[in-house]
Amino acid sequence: MPAGRAPAAPFVAADPDRPVSPDGRGRWSRRPLALGISIGALLFVVVLVVAFVLATRHDDSADGAASPAEAVSTYLEALATADADGALAVLANPPASALLTREVLARQQAAAPITDIRIIPPATGSGGAGADAGPDVVHAEYRFGDRQADVHYRTLRSGSRWWVADGVVDIALDRGNVIEPTFFGVPLGNAQRLFAFPGPWAWGSQQTFLTARAATAEDYPLGPHAPMSVTLVAGLSVAGEAAVERAVRDYLAFCAQSVQPDASADRRGCRQTLYRAAQPGSVRWTAPSDIAGLLREVSSGDARKVSVAGQIDWPVTYVPTYDGGRPISTVNDEYLYGTVDLGAESPLFTAG
Fold it and tell me: Is the pTM of this model over 0.85?
């Protein structure tokens, strides 16, 4: 080695997996590292912004209201105009419910509209809270159908916004003997707990021949209300009443074709009997025309079975076995009892 020269660096084979600088000397490039730091900082800023928006969304949201009185006023005005979404927008934690919709609310308002809404200012001299309420309670008066409502609503604050705390009614439902119950036409399925806006309730059934009502008649809630329990009882709809009457009349018309004193002798299932000395085959029955007095009662076990009972008059003419065989006309009193099966393809009356 010549004097004065430093010894050469030993040769090192290049690592194919290691990034090499443009000069090929194996030194790390600083540009990828700087780029990674910049991307990380940007992601951190984005996360901070999203967290801030989530934490403050009530403050910037259109939901809620600026004050307790505004929250209650907005809620009541929304109910009055059947604006279910508007009412839900100022409710604290509204439950999910198929009954809290514009369609159902419109039917409630059609049955009993809310009018003359008035928010009562807090009483003076009570610290701005009213004589019987805290600052988060709002006193409201309004007409609900033909009834007067005088109600106190609780409100809750979240951020700078206010929300109505008790704007829906919690209902525990016992469907009783009702098949496929409905609320204002909305199928309830197997639900045992319902949530609805205050106002009238209209129970029904998806079954064409049936309807429903509450077993105990109660006034509908005008506003906030403690959880309520409702047991339903099935009844006949207009179509059901018509189907039962048609089935009974078809039965009577069939039995009127008998020509025997004991109608069951030639008309199976018929019950009318003439206790007179009549010549066989000489009897002419006329189906009763007045059956309005018959009692109709839906079964408590199966609402599709309807009991029918009551007194009916059978006009009848017969030829006696005496008195020279001159025809005699009379009226035969009978007690009719049986069941109409509304679940059959064609409702049929069967005498019991």
Answer: no
